[in-house]
Write a structure and sequence with these properties.
Low-confidence stretches of chain A: none
Largest sheet of chain A: 10 strands, mixed
Helix content of chain A: 25-40%
Radius of gyration of chain B: 14 Å
Oligomer: heterodimer
Number of strands of chain B: 6
Number of domains of chain A: 2
Number of helices of chain B: 3
Number of domains of chain B: 1
Structural class of chain A: alpha+beta
Strand content of chain B: 35-45%
Order of helices and strands of chain B: EEEHHEEHE
Structural class of chain B: alpha+beta
Shape of chain A: globular
């Protein structure tokens, strides 16, 4: 039976480079998928490109490819790669990879460059004029009109179509813009196994969506974000990245290289299956709608888990007619500062500091839109769910963190300086400073849908 | 039958994440019996009470029998979402940990 082995190469910006190199060298793989983009990343990259036409892609793609491409050459250029680190500038990213290929004397590489995910605001206006309102999927707000003047950029999460087309044209590496993380995997399963966007393949594409989901956070499904973290072993500190071996009928095993750390267990995969799926019967991705409740997991060997079909129901449905569409808009500025305060009596000290800060905001006529005071070491992550402190067992130190959201950078700075930074002198004796993070502009996201046909993708093949 | 109090962490694993201002928690039972308990005891009302104002919107729960897990989706739950929130945990990775402290009563 025909099978294909697809390895995870990256799940963010940045990720463990050695994990990707290990998969390429020891994973016996046919394809690799590299996701570099989080929800917010595209908005950052678009603003970089606006300032400098040579920027706007993920810079880490270049050192990664410099180390990885020699392994690819050693493997007789066998495996193919899909990578969304092209971000807001895949063409420029491809030019730089071609330069690296020439420097390393790789004897030629063919790169597919996929664009069209980046939707100009003029096109957004055109679609609005045709009656599209872009309802906010998060808040239910019907019309994007309220934030139109503050929009910074817009991008659609694209599917596997152009990745597959690039492979058909012989591409060794496909560099995309905001291709969905999941599609970097779906394309890598669909191309070699000959699956098409047709009715007879929806069950198997559903499986590709599910397995793509399992792999797309790289080392996480092999233990780094697991409830088993304490017991899994990392003898050399080298996290394993997952590898999927999919057969043409849509049966699959997940494994990793033997010398990497972590583990592939039913639980490490289950933990990832339940991650960010929402309605498990309708896990919406650009290439298909998967039903996560239609599969079962079985440990069949050390670090080998079989993922197979459970029951007769289809694992997938036809892909949606719309694509996820994110618009970024400016929504003020955030500043923060953390002071580490020392016991005894840390909670009393902190309470007094909080009171002091609110009084001072008032006194100085500062009006942040939001203030959050939290205590690192007590409630900064779990908020009000944390039970009241036990007066007999107080921690000896706490981070006192004050965060402010303001309309302007100036006000955000004033809040931080006057009420955050200066708090170091207002907490009784015994403190430690920390360097506050830079004041950051808030790129708020407006998640919505766009008709598939409104997103026109282009493929260009670059060779060198 | 006599009842005893336990916390979800005693019988479950957890993993949480985000999409915008929506937090999701995958609550995975450690065994079949635990799954039956959480299906009955972990309700939107109780979760909302546990989060005491950190979760402002609706809560939906999907049981997943094949994984002995609950997929819990909480709206308006992250202080505005990753890019807007003032919380340190911008992407709600600790929301599962926070839920695991929730107390439930089970038969002794």
């Amino acid at each position: 039976m025909k099978k294909v082995r697809v390895g995870a190469g990256s799940s963010g910006w940045p990720d463990f480079k050695d994990g990707a190199l290990d998969v390429a060298r020891n994973g016996d793989i046919d394809y690799m998928s590299f996701d570099h983009l989080a929800e917010l990343t595209m908005a950052i990259l678009q603003s970089q490109r606006a300032k400098d036409p040579n920027r706007g892609y993920i810079p880490e793609v270049l050192p990664l490819m410099r180390d990885l491409l020699p392994i690819w050459k050693e493997k007789d250029k066998h495996f193919r790669m899909a990578n969304n680190g092209g971000g807001a500038n895949p063409g420029k990213c491809a030019d730089e990879v071609l330069k690296i290929s020439q420097e390393l004397n790789l004897g030629g590489i063919k790169i597919g460059v996929v664009t069209g995910d980046d939707i100009p605001l003029s096109k957004v206006d055109e679609l609005r004029a045709q009656g599209l309102k872009f309802k906010n999927l998060d808040t239910g707000e019907e019309d994007i009109g309220r934030v139109r003047d503050r929009l910074l950029g817009a991008y659609a999460y694209t599917g596997a179509d152009k990745i597959i087309e690039a492979y058909e044209q012989g591409a060794n590496l496909v560099l995309t813009g905001r291709a969905s993380d999941n599609s970097l995997y779906c394309g890598n399963f669909m191309h070699p196994l000959g699956w098409k966007f047709e009715d007879e393949y929806v069950d198997r594409i559903g499986m590709a969506v599910i397995v793509g989901h399992l792999l797309e956070c790289s080392s996480w499904s092999a233990g780094t974000c697991s409830n088993l973290w304490e017991e899994l072993e990392y003898p050399k500190g080298n996290p394993g990245f997952p590898i999927a071996e999919m057969d043409e009928d849509g049966g699959c095993i997940i494994t990793k290289t033997p010398n990497s750390g972590g583990g592939i267990r039913v639980l490490t995969l289950k933990e990832h299956l339940v991650y960010e799926v929402h309605d498990p019967h309708n896990y919406l991705m650009p290439d298909g709608i998967a039903d996560i409740t239609t599969i079962k997991l079985e440990q069949i060997d050390k670090d080998v888990v079989r993922v197979s079909k459970l029951g007769d129901a289809s694992r997938g449905k036809k892909r949606p007619d719309t694509l996820k569409f994110c618009l970024a808009y400016n929504d003020g500025y955030i500043s923060e500062e953390t002071t580490v305060i020392s016991g005894p009596k840390v909670f009393k000290m902190a309470e007094k500091m909080e009171d002091f800060i609110y009084k001072r905001l008032d006194y100085l006529n500062l009006h942040p839109k939001e203030v959050l005071i939290s205590l690192v070491g007590y409630n900064s992550l779990q908020g009000p769910t944390v039970p009241p402190p036990d007066p007999d067992h107080e921690p000896n130190e706490l981070g006192f963190r004050a965060a402010f959201k303001c309309d302007t950078r100036e006000e955000a700075r004033a809040c931080r300086t006057e009420c955050g930074h200066l708090a170091w002198g207002c907490c009784g004796p015994g403190i430690g400073f920390t360097q506050p993070p830079a004041i950051r502009p808030v790129f708020a996201l407006w998640p919505t849908l766009i008709p598939r046909e409104a997103v026109v993708e282009q493929l260009e093949i670059k060779e060198g | 039958m006599a009842k005893k109090k336990i916390r979800l962490k005693d019988i479950c694993w957890y993993r949480s994440g985000d999409k915008g201002d929506i937090s999701n928690i995958g609550l995975m039972a450690k065994d079949e019996k635990a799954y039956e308990i959480i299906k009955k005891e972990v309700t939107p009302e109780r979760i909302k009470a546990h989060f005491k104002g950190w979760v402002k919107g609706d809560i939906k729960i999907w049981p997943m029998d094949n994984l002995q897990a609950l997929e819990i989706v909480m709206y308006e739950a992250l202080g505005g979402g990753a890019t807007k929130t003032l919380r340190i945990d911008q992407t709600g990775k600790s929301m599962g940990n926070a839920l695991c402290w929730m107390e439930i009563e089970i038969d002794e």
